[in-house]
Amino acid sequence: MLLSMSDEEGIGRITLAQVAEQAGVSISTVSKVLNGRQDVAAPTRVRVERLLDAHAYRRTTRSAREAPLIEIVFHELESIWAMELIRGVENVAKAHDAGVVLTESGTRHAPGPEWMEAMLQRRPLGVVLVFSALPDEVKKQLRARSIPFVIVDPAGDPDPDVPSVGSANWSGGLAATRHLIECGHRRIGIVTGPEDMLCSLARLDGFRSAMAMAGIEVDPELVLFGDFHVEGGYDRAARMLDLPERPTAIFAGSDLQALGVLEAARVRGIQVPDDLSVVGYDDVPIARWASPALTTVHQPLRQMAEEAAQMLMRLRAQEPVSTRLELATSLVVRKSTAPPPPGPSGHRPRKENGAGGS
Amino acid sequence: MLLSMSDEEGIGRITLAQVAEQAGVSISTVSKVLNGRQDVAAPTRVRVERLLDAHAYRRTTRSAREAPLIEIVFHELESIWAMELIRGVENVAKAHDAGVVLTESGTRHAPGPEWMEAMLQRRPLGVVLVFSALPDEVKKQLRARSIPFVIVDPAGDPDPDVPSVGSANWSGGLAATRHLIECGHRRIGIVTGPEDMLCSLARLDGFRSAMAMAGIEVDPELVLFGDFHVEGGYDRAARMLDLPERPTAIFAGSDLQALGVLEAARVRGIQVPDDLSVVGYDDVPIARWASPALTTVHQPLRQMAEEAAQMLMRLRAQEPVSTRLELATSLVVRKSTAPPPPGPSGHRPRKENGAGGS
């Protein structure tokens, strides 16, 4: 499906004057609502918004501002993804002589109303939202003002209604697991992400498919959901490494979780990659700096953000864009993977080693 | 010394009309130059800029824009410091209902002209510049438009002419070294930053002072300049660890360099902290996630950026601000430091271990 900002424009379009008349307010009040001004009473604002929505109003006049802006909104700026995504938007903005406005706002599911209000006043060229799905309310407000918006969605849970850019999570899980199998591992554990994120499930399914294709049975004790943080990786790996028969390889589901796996191995005196292979996911800069450097699945975050920002420009130019773009992931082999240690089915008994704190 | 935006205002102030008359152009042309518009011929622009500068022109009318912006400009967005600094500015911007505009521009010494032009059009509340010193040109342009600006300068090389925020590098170097001495180390190496950055020299001097106070002689072979990157830490640590009498502790000068030291130790089979203690500097998030978690000097980057953004607000309100603010650093003890291994002067011979690639 292709979307264009002009889909619903054309004959029969309602004018500001008509909205004003139907709402029983002045044109300037309607204009204030469109521009996010605060000096409109809440009931009036609601009445006007409903009419704009009911008539699928689309602003046609483009902002004449001389200093164009692209906005990027995060729920969680702490995210290790944030800097790469900012870089991608910044690259495209620079090419269009635009500034980048960065906001942390709202919940995991929607930017907050304070952002919406300020953004409407700034009238940016467009908005890149790092959220999975968006409430209808938010979509309607953006559409009524003809502000193009695109979702960057590394979590892999796209809103079918909005142009979005993600990456191929299932294929990434498959590639990571195949690499371990090709190294000779058979007893392979996975710490995937949170159970309620589609990307976790897609990576896990990729893992299962690779195992099934190789005819290897998956031990349910070696399949755990994590939290995409270092602590979750540490904790889940500790559980697997303390099993009577521990895995010889762990697919860690994210680079942060992989760092937790490395630490859980280190405090047990388990050498990576000699005794245990570890694969991360994301390929954020720390993956390269870990000891040993992580073999990981490269998620092209910067490129995803660039694509999203370029989609904004195409939407502004009323060119058609895809509703969903999934960029390919690729395996980056570094130093945290190797053939399994010798022993029955690649296993040798756990070293007892009291050293190292926890 | 205290600076205020209004220092040079008052009686005898030149007006736009006077500048226009002296330049032989219209008032609207002068106004275009002030607003960074491109439709002014270069020679005219230069003439007007010179007159504005010669008369120390200060714009008095504040921008009436409804969507206020604070700008932060980096030379190098890749920097591991960037995200923490952005967070600090974002916190203050949020409190003032302002958006944050993020730009990567220019060289290590100055933002580029394309940023200056776009910024003048955006007319932000103020600008946080992550640079050490600024060319006079840049300072004059910002002052003529009454746009407050503050330097955040983790490199510790403040421009005496501009309000700036840094942190206490000498004290940080002292604290890191004292901690190692208190653990019992005497053969301590340092990999400080690049030779041309004041912060590298300040940290090194703090190291030397701590050693001198403890009556320990510094071995020149154990004092190396680095590059503040992982590779530099790896390379310098490799040189020290391959000495006939290797150090029992290394103060790594930055967290990234410390990661390089950890890797150089790992590939030699040297255990951290049992065989080698390592101290970082910065306390960026990866310090906590390293294996083992890094003992490091906390540089309050977020707080530095918050202070800088708050100084902008005080400058706007024509309140006096300090020209230089240095925030305290503090040592964070984690798991990469311990007493030295037993042996003559805390030294035991290098383990021969062929394992681990490089």
Give a short summary of the structure.
Chains A, B: This is LacI family DNA-binding transcriptional regulator. Chains A, B: Residues 14-58 form the HTH cro/C1-type domain. The structure is a homodimer of 358-residue chains. Chain A has 358 residues and is an alpha/beta fold.
Any overview of this molecule?
With 358 residues, chain A is an alpha/beta fold. Chain A folds into three domains: 53 residues, lambda repressor-like DNA-binding domains (434 Repressor (Amino-terminal Domain), Orthogonal Bundle); 127 residues, Response regulator (Rossmann fold, 3-Layer(aba) Sandwich), CATH 3.40.50; 145 residues, Rossmann fold (3-Layer(aba) Sandwich). Chain A contains twelve helices and 14 strands. Chain A has a six-stranded parallel sheet, sandwiched between helices. In chain A, strands 8-7-9-10-11-14 form a six-stranded mixed sheet, with helices on both faces. A two-stranded antiparallel sheet of chain A has the order 1-12. In chain A, α8 links the parallel β7 and β8. In chain A, α1 crosses α2, α4 packs parallel to α12 and α9 packs across α10. The interface between A and B is large, with 45 and 45 residues.
The oligomeric state of the chains shown is: homodimer
Rough shape of chain A?
A: elongated
Q: Class of the largest domain in chain A, according to the CATH hierarchy?
A: Alpha Beta
Distance between the termini of chain A: 52 Å
Question: Which radius of gyration of chain A do the C-alpha atoms yield?
Answer: 25 Å
Strand portion of chain A: 15-25%
Residue-averaged pLDDT of chain A: 86
Pfam family, one (chains A, B): LacI
Domain HTH cro/C1-type (chains A, B): 14-58
Domain HTH lacI-type (chains A, B): 14-66
Protein name (chains A, B): LacI family DNA-binding transcriptional regulator
